């Protein structure tokens, strides 16, 4: 029964993640935390792996079918920054974990950060039509933005989540769908760097191979279904889905903060 629940969570989260460009980890991580069926470290690692499997499929599919709308001029510096940020975020997670013998403290910090990010994203999304946006082209600034996104992605174990879209709306004046596709690329680079860092430093938490395969399969299948939906629905429908998801995540993170504290 537990395996069925885990698979369903990963599948549905990846469907929504592929549609909105948030990776799915922003749902998987807090929902699994709420169920409490694995340790905080294991959930963070497996959530990142699930998001990586989904984004790998989405990125490769876009490249192979030639339908990618990513602006390569800004993509390279963003990707470099995201890779560096992924390493920093993983070190930050390990540092905070080492500061306390209680693993729940890390979960509380993650849930608190995710709550603030989600709340800020919701407020921005509601009022984004009234907010002036920019078109950043400076490579150094793009790298710094990528570092920031990579840190959040790796530290929170969510892949990238809603903050990616806000950054692309504000700094690059992207439409919702273009921001979603660019977000998946950033998540791909930050998560693969984070995974390699875990392996090289020997900081991979304990987990069963069956759980990893189950979650990874759910992520890939969710990515396939999500991409199919994304190509058929309108921008404003994606926006509404995104707002609804943020509201749900706010309540889940409040629950998790109370649980861990």
Structural summary, described in words:
The chain is mainly α and 261 residues long. It has one domain. Helices cover 81% and strands 0% of the residues. It has 10 helices and no strands. α3 crosses α8 (176-201). The radius of gyration is 17 Å and the shape is globular. It starts with a helix and ends with a helix.
* Ends distance: 28 Å
Q: Which regions contain 5 or more consecutive residues with pLDDT less than 50?
A: none
The biggest sheet, with number of strands, parallel, antiparallel or mixed sense and barrel status, is: none
Helicity, in percent? over 70%
Please, what is the average pLDDT? 84
Q: What's the number of domains?
A: 1
Q: Give the SSE order as H and E letters.
A: HHHHHHHHHH
Q: Based on helices, strands and strand pairing, what is the structural class?
A: mainly alpha
Shape: globular
Radius of gyration: 17 Å
Strand content: under 5%
Number of strands: 0
Helical segment tally? 10
């Amino acid at each position: 029964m537990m395996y069925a629940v885990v698979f369903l969570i990963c599948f549905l989260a990846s469907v929504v993640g592929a549609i909105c460009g948030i990776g799915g980890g922003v749902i998987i991580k807090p929902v699994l935390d709420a169920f409490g069926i694995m340790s905080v470290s294991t959930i963070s690692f497996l959530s990142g792996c699930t998001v990586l499997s989904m984004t790998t499929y989405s990125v490769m599919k876009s490249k192979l079918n030639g339908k990618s709308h990513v602006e390569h001029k800004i993509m390279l510096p963003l990707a470099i920054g995201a890779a560096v940020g992924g390493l920093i975020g993983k070190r930050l997670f390990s540092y905070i974990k080492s500061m306390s013998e209680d693993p729940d403290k890390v979960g509380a910090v993650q849930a608190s950060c995710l709550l603030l990010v989600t709340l800020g994203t919701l407020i921005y999304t509601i009022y984004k039509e009234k907010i002036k946006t920019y078109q950043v082209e400076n490579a150094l600034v793009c790298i710094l933005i990528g570092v920031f996104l990579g840190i959040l992605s790796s530290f929170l174990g969510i892949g990238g989540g809603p903050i990616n879209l806000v950054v692309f709306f504000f700094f690059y004046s992207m439409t919702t769908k273009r921001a979603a596709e660019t977000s998946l690329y950033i998540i791909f680079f930050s998560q693969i760097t984070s995974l390699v860092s875990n392996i090289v430093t020997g900081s991979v938490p304990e987990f069963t191979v069956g759980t990893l395969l189950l979650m990874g399969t759910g992520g890939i299948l969710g990515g396939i279904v999500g991409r199919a939906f994304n190509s058929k629905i309108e921008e404003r429908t994606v926006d509404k889905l995104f707002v609804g998801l943020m509201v749900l995540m706010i309540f889940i993170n409040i629950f998790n903060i109370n649980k861990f504290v």
